[in-house]
Amino acid sequence: MAIAKYKRVLLKLSGDFMAGESGFGIDPAAVDEVAEQVKQALDFDVQLAIVIGAGNIWRGSGALARGMDRATADYMGMVATVINVMALQDSLERMGVITRAQTAIEMRQVAEPYIRRRAIRHLEKGRVVIFGAGTGNPYFTTDTAAALRAMEINAEILLKATKVDGVYDDDPLTNSAAKRFERLSYIEALNLGLKVMDSTALSLCMDNNLPLMVFKLTPPDSLVRAILGEPIGTIVCK
């Protein structure tokens, strides 16, 4: 069996992966597809943590445009991420994967409060840890939460799953001539204004020398290939 290049990773998932083709809400079949990739990755003796967004349930930008308070909109988004956490946890548990959910906003009836040492201990015991509610603070995205949690658990790399196979100099879905980058430095990604992650998350990665891989979550063995170190996406590093 191939040997994983990365032994402890944090996977950042967009909420869109939970919605399937509808683009909104939760599609159990789509959740199961994600869970199956996670289960396959565990066969390579990797310790895996996950941060999920909530774009399939709540997008605060529209509410902000209609006058909603920014902090209120952000807290609503944090709560929405927990719904996705519970859906993914349920799918993984039905597949026989032992998980723990932790949230930055306490919801003890459905998840543990986030405690760094406890999260690391879960990983050491082979459990998948799913982090919800972002950082617990408004004005920070789930990208930033992913970078923060990755550093706190001493992850070797942050894997950001997307619907395109890496980082491009333009939108490849609308521009067939868009150029794909195989490798970028943090500064290049920031200066070019590429939509890799938001600037706060990218700066956190740069300041703490945390490598980032942006890759496409299809075909079904994509997560395994990323963990094995195959060049299936764009690496952002020092």
Compile the SSE list and pairings.
Elements: E1 8-13, H1 28-42, E2 47-52, H2 60-65, H3 70-94, E3 99-103, E4 112-113, H4 116-124, E5 128-132, H5 142-152, E6 157-162, E7 167-168, E8 180-181, E9 183-185, H6 186-191, H7 199-207, E10 212-216, H8 222-228, E11 234-237
Parallel strand pairs: 1-2, 1-6, 2-5, 3-4, 3-5, 6-10, 9-11
Antiparallel strand pairs: 7-8, 10-11
Helix pairs in contact: 1-3, 1-8, 5-7
CATH fold label = Carbamate kinase
- Number of domains as seen in the coordinates: 1
Q: Sum up the overall morphology in one term.
A: globular
> What is the correct CATH architecture?
3-Layer(aba) Sandwich
Query: How much is the radius of gyration in Å?
Result: 17 Å
Number of strands: 11
- Mean pLDDT value: 94
* Span between termini: 30 Å
What letter string, H or E per element, gives the SSE order? EHEHHEEHEHEEEEHHEHE
